[in-house]
Amino acid sequence: MSYHSNLAALKKLLANQNERLSVSSLLDVTAELHGDKSIFFQLSEQQLESPAAWSALSLKRQVNIRSNILKNKYRISRYQRVGILLSNSMEYHLWFQAIVRAGGIAVPMNGGFDKTELDEYLAQTGVKLLITESCIWQGEAPSQYIDNYISLDNKNLDARGCYLADAAKDETDEFSAVKLSPDDVVLIVHTSGTTGLPKPVIHTDSTLVAVLLSNSKAVFTSKDERMMLVMPCNHWISHCAFIVTLVSSDQTWWLVKQYSAKFILSNIDQYNITSFVSFAGNYARMYNEGLDNYRLDSIKMWVSVADVSYEVHQRAFVQKGALLRVFGKVIVKSLFIDLLGSSETGVPALMRSISSYSNRFGRYLGKPINNSLQVNVVDEYGNEVAVNQPGRLVVSGPTVFKGYWNNSEKMLGVFHDNCWWTGDIVYKDKRGRFYHLDRGVNLIQTNSGQVSSLALEEQIIKVSGVLNACVLGVKLNDADSQAVACVIQSNVRADAYAGIVSAIKECELARDIKHFVFTLSDFPRGLTGKVLKRQLKSEVALLLQQRGDEIVHNFSVI
After folding, report:
1. By the 8 A CB rule, do 106 and 188 touch?
2. Of the candidates 204, 236, 259, which is a domain's last residue?
3. Is 453 a member of any domain?
4. What average pLDDT does range 151-175 have in this prediction?
5. What average pLDDT does the structure give for the chain?
6. CA distance 234 to 131
7. What whole-number distance in Å separates Cα of residue 125 and Cα of residue 198?
8. Residue 143 has pLDDT above 50, yes or no
9. What is the pLDDT of residue 25?
10. Number of domain units in the chain
11. What would you measure as the largest C-alpha separation in the chain, in angstroms?
12. Residue 41's beta-bridge partner residues?
C-alpha cells in the first residue's frame, strides 16, 4: 500500500474508535495495521552484529514499558518536561513516544550538547527528569540541575539515577495513552546553536499531525522504498521521519552513534538503499571520500534536508544510481532533492529537484512544494517585495512552530501577520522560482558593496584541491566595512597551497574585494553539523589582527 492509502486506513481505524489522528494514538493504530513487519533497522559502525530491528508492534510494547515507568515510578505530571540526552540512537524515538503517551512533553537534546550551556537550557525548559547514559557524562555524574534520571546502562549511577533494566522489571507492556487535544505541546526540539544558546522550539500535536497530512511524503518515497537516514535522532526532522515512516512502513535504516563517510557509502551498497536522506554536511563528507569507490546503483533519490547543498556535490551524486531502468538499462539517472526548511517551519518550505540534465544553479532553491505552507518574500515590515528584489523568506501554515519555550524575546521582529522569517534573504523571479542570497546574519558589507557568503562559497568549492569552504565577514581595526575571509578545508601539500590561493583570487566574486585565505583541517560544527561561523569568525578576526596580510595555512580552532 502507498503512504496515502496507509494514512486513509489509519484514519478509518481511528474513526471506528471515535478517535482522531494524534501523536499519542499513532503507535496503537500503526501496530494494528502493520503488525510485526520489520520497519526500522539501526546500524552502528561501533557494533558489527546484525542491525537491531523494530516493527510497529514491538515498538509499541517497548514504548508502553517506558510509559509505565514514567507514570508508576516517577509519577510524571501532565505537561511535565522530560529530557532525553543520549548518544545518537533510536532510543530517542522510543522515549519521545513514551513521554507523550504518558502525558508529558518530550525535550530531546543532542548528545554533543555543550556542557557549559546545558544547565542554562535545562533551566529554560524546566527539565528535572532526564533519560540519559553514562557515555554522555564521561565518568562524571549528570548535571546537578536534574532531580532524577533514568540511565540506559548501570555505570556511575548516583542516588538520583536508576538503571533502565531495573526500572522496567515490574512493568507491563500494556498502557492506555493519554488523549491529546490539537493544541497540546508534545515536543520541544532545539536549534543548531550556531548563533548562541540553542533555542527551544515548541511543537504541538497539531503541527505533527499536519506533517503527516501534508503532501511532503510524496517527495521522499513512492512504495516499498528502502530508505536510509543519517542525521541526529534528536532533531526535529528525525522525529518527523519517524512518524511518517510509521505510517508508510517503508523499510528504513538509521545510522546511529558516530559514522564515517566510508561506513555510510558501504551500507548504501550493502542494503541496496533506494532513498538516502541526510544533511548537506554529510554529502560533503561522502563526496570527499570518493563516490567512484562504491557501486551506489540502487539509489533513486538523494535527499538533502535543512540547508541547501553545493552545486559541485549535487552534480556528482546524480551520476550515481537511477530513477528508472528498463531491462537493466538506465533510462533516467538518480535525482538529488534539495529541501530548504528548519525545525521552525515544520516541513520544507522550498524544494528543488536536480537531475543530470539540470542547468539552473547559482543558489537556485526551487519552488514551494507543500500545500501546508504559504511562502513569500517580504521587507522588514512584512510588505511583499517586487519580483527579482531581495527580501526576507517568510512562511506560514499549520506545521510552523508555536514559539520558543520560555523565551518570547526571540520572537520579536521575526513574525508579521502570522508569517515567520526563516532568517534567509532571497528573491523570487516572475515564474515563482526562489533564489538564495544568504542568511541575513551572514551577508558581508564591504567597501565594494554587499557580498553573499554562500555565493562565494559556491565558487570557491569548485577550485581544485578545496574540500570545503566557509566565507566570513570580519571587521579590521574598528572599520565600518568588513573584510572577507575565505576559510577552506584542503588536503593538498603546503607547496601547492599558493596555487589554490591564486585560483580563489580569480573567482568572479573575489576579484574586486579585499579578501584573505586560511586553511584548517576541519571546521568547527554545531549540534546538527552546521559550521559554527560565529566561532570561526572570532578566531579568524584574531588571526587577522595578529598576522595582517600574511597567508595563514593550517591554523587551529579551539
Report:
1. yes
2. 259
3. yes
4. 97
5. 91
6. 12
7. 11
8. yes
9. 97
10. 2
11. 73
12. 53, 253
Global confidence as pTM: 0.93
Cα–Cα distances in angstroms (integers) from residue 189 to residues 30, 125, 144, 454, 493, in the given order: 24, 10, 22, 26, 42
Is residue 41 within 8 Å of 53, Cβ to Cβ? yes
Q: What is the mean pLDDT of residues 410-419?
A: 88
For 284, 285, 346, 528, the CA distances from 353, given in Å and listed in that order, are 18, 21, 20, 23
Residue type, 245: T
pLDDT for residue 163: 98
Nearest to 139 by CA among 155, 160, 162: 155
**Sheet bearing 148-151, strands edge to edge:** 161-163, 148-151, 129-132, 81-85, 105-109, 185-190, 200-204
**Residues near 291 by beta carbon (within 8 Å), at least 6 away in sequence:** 265, 316, 317, 319, 320
Q: Buried (b) or exposed (e) across 365-394, using 16+ Cβ within 10 A?
A: bbebbbebbebbbbeeeeeebeeeebbbbb
Report the chain's terminal Cα–Cα distance, integer Å: 51
3-class DSSP state of 426: strand
What CATH number is given to the structural domain containing 237?
3.40.50.12780
For β-strands 275-279 and 226-230, DSSP reports them as parallel
Residue at 280 is within a domain:
no
Domain boundary residue, one of 239, 259, 279: 259
* Residue the block writes with cell 544533511: 279
Are 133 and 84 in contact by the 8 Å Cβ rule? The answer is: no
Question: What would the mean pLDDT of 166-186 be, rounded to a whole number?
Answer: 98
- Counted residue by residue, the chain has a size of 558
Average pLDDT over residues 49-62: 94
pLDDT digits (tens, 9 = 90+) for 519-532: 877 788 877 778 88
Count CB-CB contacts under 10 A for residue 345: 25
pLDDT single digits (tens) 263-297: 999 999 999 999 999 999 899 999 999 999 999 99
CB atoms within 10 A of CB 269: 14
What is the three-class DSSP state of 219? helix
> Do the domain assignments include residue 237?
yes
Residue 48 has pLDDT above 80, yes or no: no
Residue 36 identity (one-letter amino acid): D
Q: Which domain holds residue 242?
A: 3-259
CATH number for the domain spanning 520: value is 3.30.300.30
